[in-house]
Amino acid sequence: MIVDDNEMNRDILVTRLSTQGYELTQAADGEEALAAAKEQLPDLILLDVMMPKIDGIEVCRRLKGDPNLPFMPIILVTAKAASSDVVTGLEAGADEYLTKPVDQMSLVARVKSAGFVLGAASGILVGLAAGMMPRVRHFFDPLVSFLYSVPKIAFLPVFLLLFGLGHASKIAIIAFSGFFPVFIASRHAVLSVNRLLIWAAQNMGAPRSTIFFRVLVPAAAPQLFAGIRIGLAHAFVVLFAAELIGSKAGLGTIISYGEEWVRFDLMFAGILCFAVLGFAADRFLLAIRSRLLKGQIIGTEEQVVR
Q1: What angle do CA 60, 61, 62 make, to 5 degrees?
Q2: 114-134: pLDDT as tens digits
Q3: SS3 74
Q4: Structural domain containing residue 193
């Protein structure tokens, strides 16, 4: 879903993304976006910030605060490029932040990252539940152990049958591959939390929700980010393999074309682009981690190295 009060901006995004095979819907303001998001449940929202009635930041807060839509990926697309604006957008719950004018490759890469966001979010949710509830753990542990060793790209034909040759199948396989490392890290993170912290909160009369959000999640956060970082690397590997099958565009296709026609310049250019995108995504994730875990990093060797 594309949300922007400027029709020309919407048309530009539609033109750039429709060539990649995406099914697109539009909304002209914040109120229309909120209603359409609850009705249509889009896979991803490209959201402008400066809009009449309700701005994009408030729309993002409301969508992320809705118990039925907490994991809907949102990318803010705006002309506001100050670091304070970026921080405000991320704190409102946005998953990514793009500044106008938007580069074509950056836009497509961010949209494809929706698969990783979905996989990581589901991995965290199920992993935390598995760490806290033995029944969930006993159900998912053998299932994950059985599937984790199988190369995830082997499931691509299944996703192609379910979602077709478009980008939906690629997003699905990326989400599937990213789920496993994040789930394992989340599960072990919860189980490794010092029980004294939980007992202390219980003795002070803290309700379950407070213990979960103020004790369990902060204590498990370092390991959660470690799992997310591994899942991000898996997502790039699977993305490359997925683009080799049933795709007419993308870096994987360029590298394959270069190999077929002995165009080493195209091959190395594609590899370099993959490396740069992976490095930028990893640095962005580490920047978020440093900000969210600032209090836990103080006085550690990691702060000294930085």
Answers
A1: 90
A2: 677 888 888 889 998 998 888
A3: strand
A4: 114-305
Query: What tokens appear for 121 in the block?
Result: 């979010």
For residue 168, give the CATH number of its domain. 1.10.3720.10
Number of domains in the chain: 2
208 touches 146 (CB < 8 A): no
Q: 194 with 78, same domain?
A: no
| 78 and 145 both lie in a single domain | no
> Which one of 83, 103, 123 terminates a domain?
103
96 and 164 within one domain: no
Backbone angles phi, psi at 97, to 5 degrees: -140, 115
pTM of the model: 0.63
Query: What one-character-per-residue DSSP string does 175-204 give?
Result: HHHHHHHHHHHHHHHHHTS-HHHHHHHHHT
- Which candidate, 56, 58, 80, places its Cα nearest to that of 2? 56
What are the tokens at 199?
A: 């007992």
Per-residue pLDDT of 63-96, as tens digits, reads: 888 777 656 778 888 777 676 777 787 778 777 7
Residues 6+ apart with CB under 8 A from 271: 255
Rounded to whole angstroms, the Cα distance separating 122 from 109 reads 21
Joined tokens for residue 258: 């270069």
Q: Could you tell me if 98 and 24 lie in one domain?
A: yes
